[in-house]
Structure formats: C-alpha cells, structure tokens
Amino acid sequence: MTAIVRAILVSVLVALAVPALAQSPRIREGDTFKPEEIIQSGHKFFGTVSRGVALTVQEAFKRWGEPNGYILGQEGAGAFFGGLRFGEGVLYTRNAGDLRVYWQGPSVGFDFGGEGARTMMLVYNLPATEGIFGRFLGLDGSAYFVGGFGMTAAVRDNMIVVPIRTGVGARLGVNIGYLKFTPTATWNPF
C-alpha cells in the first residue's frame, strides 16, 4: 500500500514541476560559452588574480566542456567541523536572460576557518534558468591563510555547477555539503 501512495505522490510532484519548468526560459543546445568569453568575464570580475582564474577556467573546460550558463557573485563562509555558506549573484545565459540567484548550504567535515570570496560558477547542462533552483551536492577542500583560490564541483541530476572562488580569510580542511540555490535570500541553509 505504501508503494502505491509513494507512486501517486511522485506523480503529483512531477505533474506540478513540469509546467513550472516549461514556463521558464528554455536554454537551447549549442548556446554555450567559449573559454575566451568566460576568461574575459573573469578578468573583469576578479581583477588582479585573473591569471589564476584563466588557468582554473581552462582546467574546468578540459574536464567538463563548455558551460551553458555561469554565475558571478560573492559569498561568505565559516566552519568549525560543521560549516555554513551564503552567497548571491547573477546567473548569465546566452539566450534565456539573466537571473538573480542566492545560495546557501551546510557542510560537515574536518574544516576550520572563515572566508569571504568572489565566486564564478560555471553551470553545465542547465535545462532552463529556473532549473538552477535546488540542491547540488559536492566535496570541497581548502587550504589558505590570508588569501586563496580554488575550484570544486557540485552535482544534481545531470547538471554540474563548478564554483571557482578567490577568497580572503583563513581556511583549512575538507568537507562534504551542498549548495541550495533559491530565487530569494534566506538565512535557512537547509
């Protein structure tokens, strides 16, 4: 009996979710960004650390190819075994427009310190602008004092989000957590 109830609930949730995605701006295949475009945007956004950004972007393109969206924003994070991260920025797409997004998320692991960071996130396999909203699971590692630079990856379904961060602060450790993207700011990381 519980299997039937679960099947009905899943059917209802899918039926409610599909029209919402159908109404959001669709992203067509082939509307990706070239490495030069992302690097140019990174130069403008990050400024003096742009050589490191260029190398990191090139590594992301080698691993995952061309993204069909990217986010530019800033975030703050802190951890003492468990951690929290909060950020805001703008999702840029080739043909579906720009969208303000917020992200937050908890993490747990061997992780200590705090940071403030400028963040560029490359977004792969984004079906529609509203498709960014949800939780992306990832593994993160940091080791820097005063300033630092890093790239991680977080996944959900077929989508991949690759945060590239340049931060100020002191952070050491490795953790597992998720980023939850929302259309409005919230203090609730869960």
UniProtKB/TrEMBL annotation:
<feature type="signal peptide">
    <location>
        <begin position="1"/>
        <end position="22"/>
    </location>
</feature>
<dbReference type="Pfam" id="PF06577">
    <property type="entry name" value="EipA"/>
</dbReference>
<protein>
    <recommendedName>
        <fullName>DUF1134 domain-containing protein</fullName>
    </recommendedName>
</protein>
<dbReference type="InterPro" id="IPR008325">
    <property type="entry name" value="EipA-like"/>
</dbReference>
<keyword id="KW-0732">Signal</keyword>
